[in-house]
Amino acid sequence: MRFRWHALPMADISEASIELGPFLRARRAELTRDQVGLPPAAGIRRVSGLRREEVAELAGISADYYARLEQGRLSSVSEYTLAAVCEALRLNADQETYVRTLARKPAIPMLNGDMTVDASTGNLLAHLSDVPVLVLGPYLDILGWNTLASALFLDFAQVPREHRNLVWLAFLDAQVRAMYLDWESVGRTCVAYLRMDAARNPQSPRLAELVGELSARDRDFHVWWTSQTVAHHNTSGRKRYRHPVAGEFTLDSQIYQRAETHETTLVFLVPTPNAQSRHAFSALARIAASLPESPAPLGDYQTRT
Q1: Which domain holds residue 282?
Q2: Could you tell me which of 86, 214, 249 has the C-alpha nearest to residue 139?
């Protein structure tokens, strides 16, 4: 009998290993032998979670190979092995996507040069006046907004461009931070979204600048960032707000991503159908009417990749 061998697709992880190792270690530390179907270990364990050799056993690879993967000493890994490791660590869909995105080479580039809100999106913003709308770019940078979004949060036109970022504002702007009644949940979610974005270009200077400042200035951000939690932008969600003028109300977010580039995301913040939200939006509409027309920042934003 003759065997025909086929080359397995390989992922080049030489550049991704810096981020991949800590992520795998964090997930390994979360698991117990009981959770993965292994019998109880004899004696005292010196590590939390699974040992490397236990993950290797579950994935069907050698302990040395898995150790080199975690330590960033492999230049490539087969897609089959990567899938086996993801299964061994019981990764969810978002976590597996993060690992596979990191393992791609070259890194998926964020758009170079000037990144702007295109004319069609700018026109859409100009005609949307019933609900707050934000246009987000890579790393949750705020590229565009309408006047009702400014009435809800703050006048984005007065915010320095490097600080027009949803995560930066949620953690470091006292006014925005105080608006979220479920701030811890919002903060954790923002960090998980940011790390997922980071997988596409982990060596980005813009990312390093943003994460460096947030880690230095906010302990919660530092702790949550190092926990290696990841999540995709949800297509919908609900948040509770406390506005200094409009009072307390609840908004549902509807998120739409540009399919052709995956670089920009539109976020619509829709009030829940109740009297409290209707009253709050009447107050926001009055604030919006007093603001200067929001300048669609066409050509006013530059990404640093």
Answers
A1: 119-290
A2: 214
Any residues with CB less than 8 A from the CB of 46 and at least 6 apart, and which?
none
Give yes or no: residues 269 and 129 share one domain: yes
Q: Is residue 111 assigned to a domain?
A: no
Q: Quick one: pLDDT band at residue 122, thresholds 50, 70, 90?
A: confident
Dihedral sign, Cα of residue 107, residue 19, residue 27, residue 78: positive
The total number of structural domains in the chain stands at: 2
Q: What is the sign, positive or negative, of the torsion defined by CA atoms of 67, 72, 73, 74?
A: positive
Contact 254, 270 (CB under 8 A): yes
State pLDDT tens for residues 57-104: 999 999 999 999 998 887 788 889 999 999 999 999 999 999 988 887
Q: State residue 200's pLDDT score.
A: 84
Same-domain check for residues 212 and 66: no
Where in 101-213 does DSSP place strands (E)?
133-136, 142-145
Residue 146, domain member (yes or no): yes
pTM of the model: 0.84
Same domain? 37 vs 66: yes
